[in-house]
Amino acid sequence: MKSILDYETVSLIDEDDALEIIDQTLLPGKIEIIRLHTAKEIWDAIYLLQVRGAPAIGVSAGMGLYLLMKHSKAQSYDEFMKELDEKSDYLNSSRPTAVNLSWALKRMKAHVEKVYAKMSPRDGVSGSFSDAVRPKLIDEMRDECQRIKQEDIDVCRRIGEYGVTLVKDGDGILTHCNAGQLCACKYGTATAPMYLAHEKGYNIKVYCDETRPLLQGARLTAFELHSAGIDTTLLCDNMSASLMKSGAVNVIFTGCDRVAANGDAANKIGTSMVALAAKRYGVPFYICAPTSTIDINTPTGADINIEQRKPEEVTEMWYKERMAPEGINVYNPAFDVTDNELIAGIVTEYGILHAPYDEAIRKLFSEIKK
Amino acid sequence: MKSILDYETVSLIDEDDALEIIDQTLLPGKIEIIRLHTAKEIWDAIYLLQVRGAPAIGVSAGMGLYLLMKHSKAQSYDEFMKELDEKSDYLNSSRPTAVNLSWALKRMKAHVEKVYAKMSPRDGVSGSFSDAVRPKLIDEMRDECQRIKQEDIDVCRRIGEYGVTLVKDGDGILTHCNAGQLCACKYGTATAPMYLAHEKGYNIKVYCDETRPLLQGARLTAFELHSAGIDTTLLCDNMSASLMKSGAVNVIFTGCDRVAANGDAANKIGTSMVALAAKRYGVPFYICAPTSTIDINTPTGADINIEQRKPEEVTEMWYKERMAPEGINVYNPAFDVTDNELIAGIVTEYGILHAPYDEAIRKLFSEIKK
Questions:
Q1: Chosen from A173, A230, A239, A281 to mutate, greatest number of chain B CBs within 10 A
Q2: What fold does the segment set B4-154 form as a domain?
Q3: Hey, which residues does A267 pair with through a beta bridge?
Q4: Which residues of A are designated catalytic?
Q5: Do B3 and B229 contact (CB within 8 A), yes or no?
Q6: What pLDDT, on the 0 to 100 scale, is given for residue A89?
Q7: Residue A241: its chain B contacts at CB < 8 A?
Q8: Which of A209, A245, A323 sits opposite B218 (nearest CB)?
Q9: Per-residue pLDDT tens for B17-53?
Q10: Distance from CA of A270 to the nearest CA of B (A)
């Protein structure tokens, strides 16, 4: 079996006008690399979760928008931008709540606008738009979407480099859900310290919560770590306290969906229960968070709106037959909030933040701005 | 839909030489009442978990042994007891680690021995064994297995009566796994306070953890409570902290498999994580335990041996396809231990025990002995 690290989650195959992805809906049973050419194919891949995870979706959207504009026949800047808006709106409709999707599409557009604004002479270029301006804008779009991907890889690598300082040879490491390479472009966030520890030759043992209801831990995290040759053990979500009590876990890394200004962290449902058990059994619990997921405009975890998902995910999805009585109510929140005091540190691409988080986050953001 | 309370989990149908049970392997999709006549049918029902739960297995074994001896042709007491031992060993082999199974079979044998010992004149009855002695022993076996069942119902009812004093009208109640009527003969243990609250007309809302990997919460607890007309909500095990944080849960009841002399309680895997979240969010967490599950010879939870179960329960059971990569390790303990300090009280058929549990348990046992 090839390692997951031999693949890229999302790649631009420019010579084939294609986006290449691992079809994640077939994992872990089958590793199939597919190429997406048309707008519909790209839209479907995002909608059907063939590609998933905030960073990977962002990169796919950026590259997708480039590919859809690459053969544009627009005869003027206005026409070009109108076409870009249409393609962008279409891609954005595939998963409207995914922040990185719209973020990447907006970034692509803003870059085109900036490049065009700097082009000189601006006036009078309309006559030669298709010869001079359009190819330049398209070239710039290709570079920008490649930059989005490279920045994601760099951020994950740096999170891994800081995170691996928290790992010792021989450690047991627990994670919840998938904040792995499969949701980013390389390394992932929570998995980056694991891949880097493995690179260093550390003999680590990783424990993956299966992560009900959608089983991202069993299907994706366990798959990608195991394929990379890391000693991987799967457990049900309700088993992690027992495992920690046994002394098998030395450190915990999870990803996060949003960190509030006070360090409260929203992540996949169940993360807070892992953190509670970690506190009880003295295991340090770290959140791996690119600074892009830290939201200084959200004061605390209580201000984070939690999506409720459909009952069928709990009552029938994945099962051979319906496993709960008809007519039952279902509580199915997608995320929970881990209180900042349960978090030993927040591993970012700029270093590891420690409590008090409000201060640490304020300081980090003022330094980034400089 | 009829309520679960309209059924009995296990019944003796003496006129048909049969044991009648609800086939629990078909729940929650189908309520099928089946009658077991032969030794093989009874053995299979226990082995295949058509009937399950410690008390229900005990009652089934006792009734099964009676039915298998009912038409005995033994011509002497020795012959009768030899036959009884053979039938008993056979039934006992269906689930050799189930304590209540061997307990009930031993109790049936001991009762026969006691009755025979009291029969007078003992000597010289062998000639008329088949006319005088054998029918009496068989009658006594029927009474004894009915007593085992009635005692179970009484114990559950009394646990319910004590437990319901901890419930207020309008309360949200959380439970984990199935310590319900389906594992006992009526009321169950953890569910007894819920059924009694419902009987009293309280408007309660019960939350059931699905309880991976075997989903007893989704398949059995949610089914039986819902069928009884109780407002029932299903959630994944990793969602209970989120639910408690929201304020929806006022009190928690779970069953237990064994309580140590210091009050540490072994129960279905995940129970300790519920208790940890309960502590954090100020929700009282109660264990419902017949005194038969309190083991004063086990000093602490650390002395309880935890069964590890097969990986397939986590990686493929219930699923349409294998949901984890081949070759993965699996951690799959059946139980975990909840530390006594996380337990607000232990609800027994003699009242509610409070910390310090070592004293409370010692006192209870010395009173029971009197």
A1: A239
A2: Four Helix Bundle (Hemerythrin (Met), subunit A) (1.20.120)
A3: A336
A4: 257
A5: yes
A6: 97
A7: 270, 272-273, 276, 336
A8: A323
A9: 999 999 998 888 888 999 999 999 999 999 998 999 8
A10: 4
Q: How many CA atoms lie within 13 A of A335 on its CB side?
A: 19
The residue behind tokens 């975890």 is: A301
Residue A125: what pLDDT? 52
Please, which residues 215-274 of chain B have a Cβ atom closer than 8 Å to chain A?
215, 218-219, 222-223, 226-227, 231-243, 245, 269-270, 272-273
Q: Are A231 and A205 in contact (CB under 8 A)?
A: yes
Kindly report the pTM of this predicted structure: 0.92
Residues B61, B104: Cα–Cα separation, whole Å: 7
ipTM computed for the complex = 0.91
Give the mutation candidate from B273, B312, B314, B322 for the A interface (greatest A CB count, under 10 A).
Answer: B273
Q: Which of A210, A314, A321 sits opposite B234 (nearest CB)?
A: A314
Point out the residues of chain B with pLDDT beneath 70. 1, 120-127, 318-320
Put simply, the answer to whether A234 touches B331 (Cβ < 8 Å) is yes
With an 8 Å Cβ cutoff, is A275 touching chain B?
Answer: no
Q: Which two tokens stand for residue A1?
A: 């079996």
Q: Can you tell me whether residue B208 is helix, strand or coil?
A: strand
Question: What is the per-residue pLDDT for B95?
Answer: 86
User: B311 preceded by cis ω (within 30°)?
Assistant: no
How much is the pLDDT for A6?
83
What's the confidence (pLDDT) of residue B100? Answer: 84
The interface residues of chain B toward chain A in range 323-352, judged by CB-CB distance below 8 A, are 323-325, 327-333, 336-337
Beta-carbon contacts of residue A58 (< 8 Å; ≥ 6 apart): A100, A101, A103, A104, A148, A152
Low-confidence ranges of chain A (pLDDT < 50): none
- Pair of tokens at residue A16: 């084939």
Q: In chain A, which residues have their Cβ closer than 8 Å to the Cβ of B310?
A: none
CATH fold for the domain made of B159-369: Rossmann fold (3.40.50)
Partners of B329 on chain A (C-beta within 8 Å) are: 231-234
Q: Report CA A13 to chain centroid distance, whole Å.
A: 21
C-alpha span between A159 and B300 (Å, rounded): 42
pLDDT (0 to 100) of residue A3: 78
Tokens of A218: 């069993």
- Per-domain residue ranges for chain A? 4-154, 159-369
Q: Do A328 and B232 touch (CB under 8 A)?
A: yes
**Does B242 contact A306 at a Cβ distance shorter than 8 Å?**
yes
